[in-house]
Design brief:
2 domains; single chain; alpha+beta; 41% helix; Muramoyl-pentapeptide Carboxypeptidase, domain 2; 292 residues; three-stranded mixed beta sheet
Length: 292
């Protein structure tokens, strides 16, 4: 038997040596197939892959924004960074009409915004439109938008109106993570009079120009948007591409656009305690108090 094997090898030696690279490639391919079967056998790993594939298609430009479905799949490991009062700064202007009182924000996010403001040249300021939003205010705003949509579209059902409203304001029952976490902020650059730079749309104006990298804006408007994104990005913020003014740090949206499925550090700051009331789930450190 052994002699026969040796004889067969001698007869086919040259062919075997010539095909060694093919044998190696075949073995590698077999190992890869076996590994893929093992990897995708797990539901958890399949979900993990789908999330990162979705993020990859966003990064290479195949999609404008990440689906709400995948943003909602981000896992949050709350770090209990407290909510604090947003105290004034010489290069920060508050838009009182859109801010909720008290004006609260996560402590680390506040420090980041202060560092951005410290870097502002004379005559340029950060204008703050929106920070932490309580669940009660979110519910009021959501119902207001639903009423507006219903009035503008006679005959539309409430369910459809609610779906449309989610594109214009935060869903109080949603789990995307955003203003309800205290980690999201709506901002613009403005002059000392509080006049925004030209961004092509006003804050909360929704049309084809609302997308951060919309093709419906002028070169100067595009430059202003890129400047804002660059300034915020230096401090770790992520822009939501569907709204040029919306930036996040630490929440689900931030983690999703960073490609971190398990990277959320800010969850909702409130929990429903029943009968339309809410309680804080994280520390709230007040440095100023309303007068009684």
């Amino acid at each position: 038997m052994i002699d026969e094997l040796i004889q067969w090898f001698e007869e086919h030696k040259d062919a075997l040596i010539a095909n060694i690279p093919n044998f190696i490639y075949g073995a590698i391919a077999l190992i890869i197939v076996i590994w893929l079967i093992w990897y995708f056998k797990s539901k958890r790993r399949r979900r993990h892959f789908r999330f990162h594939w979705h993020h990859f298609t966003y990064v290479i430009g195949l999609r404008k924004i990440m689906s709400r479905r995948y943003v909602g799949k981000v896992h949050v490991h709350e770090n209990f960074d407290p909510l604090v009062d947003f105290l004034p700064h010489r290069h920060i202007i508050f838009n009182e009409e859109t801010l909720e009182e008290p004006n609260l924000i996560r402590k680390q996010v506040l420090f980041k915004l202060y560092r951005i403001a410290d870097s502002m040249p004379a005559g340029v300021n950060l204008k703050i439109y929106k920070t932490f939003r309580s669940r009660i205010k979110m519910s009021e705003s959501f119902e207001s938008v639903i009423a507006q949509i219903t009035a503008e579209n006679p005959g539309i059902g409430r369910h459809e109106a609610m779906k449309l409203a989610k594109f214009k304001t935060d869903d109080p029952k949603g789990s995307m993570g955003g203003h309800e976490t205290g980690g999201a902020v709506d901002v613009a650059l403005c002059n000392d009079k509080g006049e925004d730079l030209d961004y092509g749309t006003r804050f909360h104006e929704y049309n084809d120009s609302t997308f951060t990298y919309s093709s419906h804006v002028t070169p100067q408007q595009r430059k202003n948007r890129k400047q804002l994104v660059k300034i915020m990005k230096k401090q770790g913020f992520v822009n939501f591409p569907g709204e040029w003014w919306h930036f996040s740090y630490g929440d689900r949206m931030w983690a999703a656009y960073k490609g971190k499925r398990n990277g959320g550090i800010y969850g909702s700051a409130e929990i429903d305690t029943g009968q339309g009331t809410y309680g804080f789930t994280i520390p709230v450190t007040r440095t100023k108090f309303e007068k009684h």
